[in-house]
Every structure is written in C-alpha cells, then in structure tokens.
Amino acid sequence: MPGRTRLFVFEHDPQLSALLAEIFGGPSYRVVPLSASDSIPELVAADQPQVALIDFPPDRAGREVSMQLIERLRAAAAPDPVGVVALTADLQLVHRASERFARLPDFAILSKPFNLDELLDVVTALNRYVRDHELSSILNTPTPMLVLDAEGRIRRTNRPARTLLGPSLAAMRAARFTDLFDGSPQQRDDPLARLLRERSLPPATVSLGASDPRLQVQVHAAAIQGNDGAEPLLVAWVRPLT
After folding, report:
1. Pick from 43, 40, 242, 237: nearest CA to 142
2. Which of 61, 57, 10 is nearest to 31 (CA)?
3. CB 123 within 8 A of CB 228
4. Could you report the per-residue pLDDT of 1-52, keeping only the tens digit for each?
5. How far is the C-alpha of 5 from the C-alpha of 225, rounded, in Å?
6. What are the distances in angstroms from CA 124 to CA 39, 138, 193?
7. Is the pLDDT of residue 112 over 70?
8. pTM, two decimal places
9. Residues with Cβ < 8 Å from 120, sequence gap 6 or more?
10. Rounded to 10 degrees, what is the CA torsion of 95, 97, 99, 101?
C-alpha cells in the first residue's frame, strides 16, 4: 500500500512488543518485528525501513546487541538513512547512547515508560527526515524527475526536468500532470491512480502548450512514504522518446 511507513521493531518484552505492533498497526504503518538472529541485509533488501524502534535493556550484553543491531541496520540500508528510536528504562544509558549517536540527525532516545504522543511525534519527525533525504537523493539525478502530490500536481522538479519541459513548466504546475496526456477517455481514465498502482504508464504524448511541440514520453513513478496520516508523494521520471 503506497504511503505506509515501514517500521522495524526490536523489543525484548513480548507484551511491549505486542503493544507497539498494536499502536502502529493502522494503515499508515507496516510493522516488521526484528530479532538479533535475523539476517538484516535480507530484511532490509526486502523491506527498506524508514524508522526502527530498538529496545536497550539494562544489561551490558543486551545493550551491545542493540547497538550492533543499529549499526547493522544502517550498514544494510546505506546510503539511505534509517531513523532510530532507542527505548530504555536506564537513564544513564540514555546519556551513553547519546554520546555514541548524538551526531546523527536520525536518532532519538525515549525513556520507558514512554509517553504515547511523544513516541508518535518522534516517529513522525524521523520519518519526515528520512523521506526528505530520499527525495533529495532522487532529485539529484540526470534523469528528468517530477514530484507530484496526491492530486497529481507538480510540487518539485529537478534541473533536467526543467530543461526538458522549458517555459511550459509554469503552466503545467497549474494542472494535474497526468491530465496533460493525449489519448482516448479510456486511456486517460484516472492515470494518477494507475501510476500509483502500476508504477508506469504506456508511452504517451504530452502536450506542452500551444507554443511548444508535443513530446513523446514514457512515464514511470514510485511512491515516497507519507508521514502518519499524510498522503504519499509520487516521484515520476520522464523519458523522452522523441
């Protein structure tokens, strides 16, 4: 389902683990439970996480397992970041973990018992950071890229897209991008939903305006995760065929 935040959870307490799964069990999240024996590279390859909730137990061996798990997650997800929330009842551990990870903008620590609203706020903030990083990485490419909102309107573009679309871009921003496609009503039936579902559209002609030639393009798309309750953004890359 587009827009769901992928949330990895590593928690020693079975009751708290079940509670976290219930808290984040709605349509905005997909919860993936973790164990120390899991193959992290395989899990990340199958389901790249945006945020991970990591339990830091009071014993030294357990803490080291948690810290190693964070490092394994970051290594497997690189170059993309993973927002990490460390959950612990040990206040001294909070300070030690802060010293080790404080330089990272995608790391937060919450003391147990945690406040539910604070947890949700932290997860949302970390997800926003990861999403912004993903978006910046995607736009920093020689491929013409467009970022569409849930209504199909152009929110952001990169330099190659501005070069390709030229002076017509300003007029295009006022319309739904997918409404610019020529074709029969059947072919144009809810193309944004089709992009979300199929991640591509067949080769089509885009009308760039009265003073510009028509352009044959192939459009592909991928959803960028929304924050809790927010619609996903759709990143479309345009490949000229003419």
Report:
1. 237
2. 10
3. yes
4. 445 788 999 998 999 999 999 999 887 888 999 888 888 888 888 878 889 9
5. 6
6. 26, 21, 25
7. yes
8. 0.63
9. 23, 228
10. -140
